[in-house]
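TA notes. Do not distribute before section.
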Amino acid sequence: MTVFPGLCKGCGYCIVKCPRQCITWSEALGIYGTPTVTVEGDKCILCQSCALVCPDCAIEVTYIPRPKRKKKYFD
């Protein structure tokens, strides 16, 4: 998940819409001098609710699959 602070105007829609409550206010200021958001990546379930509700397209959710694990067979 990527947040673009230069595009975030600090509306807070993503914070309200997140089902896991993993988006919070950041210390960084956005383009309008308002606080931007930050994401706790380990809580995020990649539902994309935040990206869909963001009026400024300041959030991008990209799924990157983990490498396939090799199965270990025991004798």
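Switch to the second chain here.
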Amino acid sequence: MSSSNADHGELGAFLKARRMELSPAQVGLPDSAGGRRRVKGLRREEVALLASISPDYYTRLEQGRRQASEPVLDTLARVLRLDDGERAYMFELSGRDAARPRRRTTQKVQPELRRLLDDLSTTPAVVLGRRTDILAWNPMAAALFTDFARIPERKRNFVRLVFCEPAIRALYPDWDRVAQISLAQLRMAAARDPKDPRLAELVGELSLQDPDFRRWWGAHRVAVQGRGTKVLNHPIAGQLTLDWSFLTCTADPDQQLITLTAEPGTPSHDRLRTLASADHAGEAGCSTAAGGARW
């Protein structure tokens, strides 16, 4: 396996961030300093001890001067208490995932996803591409969120909108949680293609504009989620509790259809149906056309 795609500097920063979150007590080590440590979290030497590797070996990993083997990565995932998403992220950064060509051509929504969007007349749905770019959406999604036709196509990105669009911020009573989850998912995209110039541009732009983004990005959180629940305070429909899930396109695994639904019989279900029958969905516009996507 070639390590040409590995970003060892990012790997080191990730390992450091994770060990700093663990205390000796959490991993079964005595705290000889009695809780008065100069350094937050575990020391490098302690991680090396738990992983049965030399302190010099681990130090070189954090400094980006050494490539880890798969067994060592597995051991570090256990020692640092990584969840499945964090473990996958670590392997991506190490270049240990299956090599594949990096496609940076402009994505267009797949025809089968386009047809699905058109058929979902009462269900908000969007298609997200690489780096959470918004490729397409249906009228219900536009009615639920906002009309983004005024936004240039290059700026139609979910994470950017979460952090920079006041109308999107106002929808979420738990904006901090939503923003951190979306950023953690962007981290996974960065691991899959660390040399993507548009992703680097996006991260640089948001780091300059938003101190929350800058702080949370530095925490190296990652997430892999296939479903969840969103609570929105919609200016017309009122409070909505919606379950979301995604369908990955087999023709292009970098495209995902995201749907938002409400449990039948709940107030959110009734309010979503009311929104679907109102003129607002029609006013908000349809999805992909020759000029680009709307969401």
